[in-house]
Amino acid sequence: MSLSLVGRLLIAPALLVASSATAPAWASSTLDIKTVANSCANCHGPDGRSTTIIPSLAGRPEAALLEQLRAFASDTPPAGTTIMSRLVKGYQDADLEALARHFSEISSTPRSVAEGR
Predict the structure, then answer these.
(1) Rounded CA gap, 117 and 40, in Å?
(2) How many domains does the chain have?
């Protein structure tokens, strides 16, 4: 990592906190949860709708998602955990809550499929 990138990574959280007054009402953390959730698409599919053996996140109960995120973030993640324990490190509990809420509010069926398109 270049020093300039490290500097930007250190400054970014302060900027996010400073701009939290403009955060959407659903966000309880200082992160832009939609941006963070987009990175989940790499494995869990767009909007958390997986088309592979990796579990879908969309439409799952918020409490279940939050329980799993907290388990991944714990000092003793579930057996067989692959990359999730590394991905959630550094997130605050409010961030995990916001991610769980975000995915629980997405329909498990894409609108085009539900409309018969």
Answers:
(1) 26
(2) 1
What does pTM read for this prediction?
A: 0.68
Q: Which residues are CB-contacts of 103 (< 8 A; sequence separation ≥ 6)?
A: 37, 40, 48, 57, 58, 59, 60, 65
Give CA angle at 95 (64, 24), nearest 5°: 105
Residue 18 domain flag: no
Which range marks the domain in which residue 38 is found?
Answer: 33-105
Are 58 and 110 in contact, with CB atoms under 8 Å apart? no
pLDDT score recorded for residue 21: 43
Residue 14 lies in a domain: no
Three-state SS for 102-113 is HHHCCCCCCHHH
Token readout for 15 is 């900027």
Rounded to an integer, what distance in angstroms lies between the CA atom of residue 13 and that of residue 5? Answer: 13
CATH number for the domain spanning 93: value is: 1.10.760.10
